Amino acid sequence: MRTMTFSIGVRQVVVMGVAGVGKTTVARDLSRLMGWTFAEGDAFHPEVNLDKMSSGHPLTDEDRWPWLRLIGEWMSHEIAAGRSGIVTCSALRRAYRDLLREGRPEVVFCHLAAEEDLVANRIGSRQDHFMPPSLLHSQYDTLEPLEPGEPGVVVSVDGSAAEVLARAVAALQLQPEGD
Question: I want to staple 39 with a disulfide (CB 3.0 to 4.6 A). Which of 87, 92, 141, 149 is the partner?
Answer without folding.
Answer: 87
